Amino acid sequence: MDLNKMMKNTLKIVLLTSMLPFAASASQELTPWYVGAGLGVNNYEHVATQNGSDDSFAWDIFAGYMFNDYFGAEIGFRDLGNADWTAAGISNDADVKGTTLGLVGLWPLANRWSLSAEAGAMYYTLENSQNNGLISSTYSTDDFAPYFGAGVGYNFTDNLKLQAKYRRYENLNDDYNIVEADSNYWGLELSYRFGNTVAAAPVAAPVVAAPVDSDNDGVYDDKDQCPATPATHKVDSVGCTIYENVKNKEDVGSIQFANDSAVVKNVYYKDIERLANYMNKNPEFTVEIAGHASNVGKPDYNMELSHKRANAVADILVNKYGISQSRVTAKGYGVNQPLVAGDSKEAHAANRRIEAIVTTTTKQPVLK
User: Which positions make up the signal peptide (predicted)?
Assistant: First the structure.
């Protein structure tokens, strides 16, 4: 490797890091600037794997600037160590050094822990010394290589942080296709962020008048949007009465049928129309058409007949008067719910019927 070039790169980093404390001295708060150094091990892939070895010692120095609590940029100098191997009777001793520039993302966690991710490029110099037993030679290559990494860190103080780092370098190649390597780095880094955190000066609490609840509903007047709610009503967060929907069932009339018939007589269409109008005025209501039969004949037959009677009226409500099918149910009860007890002609006539039971919804205040 060119010694002058290495000294120039190192000098750039030293000059930058030496200027950072002066940037921080003008402020008493924690600044976005930080510096640090790292030490670890590096493994070159594709070389020194069969008949060689890695000198795995690696190190770096760096400086960075945080744009905010989560995002920053970092510049540094890194030495990835050496790899020794022999191929075709020629021994090789290669090392990689260079400057880096990258972006850093930071995710603070609880109890001073944090996660980080980084990506950037390394302008590297790859130097390889070769010896075939008679002649020794050295060549070098300069090029760019991408890298990315991740880490976990712990802040001992607001200024001092220790991180465990992993980095992956791609395409660390020379110009002669002798070295074509990637590498994996694992290490620890210690960084120092300049400045000091300053505790906010205590502020005297303003004198505030005691809150008032004029209607005693548990909500103070400055938030009460319903200032005169009854004392027995439960209220919401702004002092207004809480209501609940209460369902009630209402019998709105019945229709009679001829013996052994499920045909709706024309005289009852006006009653069905009135029911449809009532349902249209109250779109939240539902109705059950309950079919019944007189206690004449077999129970199973009467049950089926009561179903047919209920379905006949429900069909008229839906198909003639346009009430939604979802609001209408039909159910047969056979002879189980007689309107008039007994075995007389009048009792049988009264029990051959349907009844319309409407489920209504009313809003009522919730009481304490």
Answer: 1-26
